[in-house]
Amino acid sequence: MSAIVSAADARRSRVRLLIVTMLFLVTTVNYADRATLSIAGPALSKELHLDPVAMGYVFSAFGWSYVIAQVPCGWLLDRFGSKWVYAISIIVWSIFTALQGLVGFLSAGTAVLLLFGLRFLVGIAEAPSFPANARIVAAWFPGNERGTASAFFNSGQYFATVIFAPLMGWIAHEHGWRHVFYVMGGLGIVMGIAWIKTIYEPKEHPAINEAEFDYIKQGGALVDMDAAKDGKTHDSGPSWDHIRQLLANRMMLGVYIGQYCINTLTYFFLTWFPIYLVKERGLSILQAGFVATLPALCGFIGGVLGGVISDYLLRRTGSLTIARKIPIVGGMLLSMSIIACNYVDGQALVVSFMALAFFGKGIGALGWAVVSDTSPKEAGGVSGGLFNTFGNLSSITTPIIIGYILAATGSFNGALVFVGANALVAAIAYLFIVGEIKRVQLKAA
């Protein structure tokens, strides 16, 4: 985050750095909780006698509810503000994560149904997270820092694997898969309490000074986004016409298609990747937890670097379109290197190509910066919710499609081609559909 801080900041407080650090930490826990099932998956599937297709459907349970809840949760954010909607979200998803550890005490059929149900509830509870992240970045950061800030919090998805995949692998190996859920659920509850203590709107934060407030406001931050969310003076929230206008916008449709394809890589990594390492490459679950950290670390580095590159290009060119599209398209083309894993045998080469693919994915994962750049002020939560709805349809389709590919072929080769092809489509969407990137201006109904 050093790129955010310049010499001109000397007189300003730097509260926005604390805010984006909290977003990063919460996102890290968020993605670690999503990945609990993939780490526990090999032992859990063996104990509960689940075949690849059944595991694909269990993996997808999170995605069904996460997608369904996006727009309603975006509306809640626009109606009641980010702080408390997000706080409740963190605590509730953590409780449901911890409860997943109890399914091992039930018979196999009942356990599978309960596991699907709990993953479904985790998806609903996590739904406000990324629209809230985008709203908070839009409120706290001027335009020339928004790409770095968005890339930084979004890179928490990779950092989650760097930190928690080895930890969860060790817990599963030493204490059993159930304890993975207990530990991560407890950590999330602690994070929810920390969130309540540290997050405020720019006008309300006790540590911000006038110089920082003026700087972010003059730079385009939407500092009064939640100013009237006091339970008395807020309006009724965004309307259906706002949603219609967003869906009719060609730029946003291109962004939605791109995010769907980008997230296909994400959900391969969160669901099937550890199982790929265990079943296709012969690693133990403990080894898989540690090996997964290298691609994740490269994704984290790429994620931060993508934001830095994007904001640098914005300062040099003054064009949001150039600044956002170059890293996204270049990163997605680099991500296609995942297909090369089908043509090498050594574990080191496999991990190297995976690392290169996720480095590219990290560079290109600027979708949430684009949301912060383009969302209309009066419907920022709904805009983020629509974006995340389309983007996370891949959380449903990716695990199921890969499950069927495995069942039909007995190999991950087709699955890796499927993932790489999605990276190509994402690049095409940004090149030929999105057009100029600019803030959407909604018309009065």
TrEMBL record:
Molecular functions per Gene Ontology: transmembrane transporter activity
Question: Is Cell membrane there in the keyword field?
Answer: yes
Q: What are the entry keywords?
A: Cell membrane, Membrane, Transmembrane, Transmembrane helix, Transport
Q: Where are the transmembrane segments?
A: 56-77, 84-105, 151-173, 179-196, 253-273, 285-314, 326-344, 350-371, 383-406, 412-433
Subcellular localization, per the record?
Cell membrane
- Specify the Major facilitator superfamily (MFS) profile domain's residue ranges: 19-438
- Broad class of where this protein is predominantly found: membrane
Known Gene3D superfamilies for this protein? MFS general substrate transporter like domains
- Recorded GO CC terms: plasma membrane
InterPro entries, alphabetically? MFS (IPR011701), MFS_dom (IPR020846), MFS_Na/Anion_cotransporter (IPR050382), MFS_trans_sf (IPR036259), Sugar_P_transporter (IPR000849)
How does the protein associate with the membrane? Multi-pass membrane protein
Q: Which family does it belong to?
A: Belongs to the major facilitator superfamily. Phthalate permease family.
Q: What is this protein called?
A: MFS transporter
Provide the species name: Bradyrhizobium septentrionale
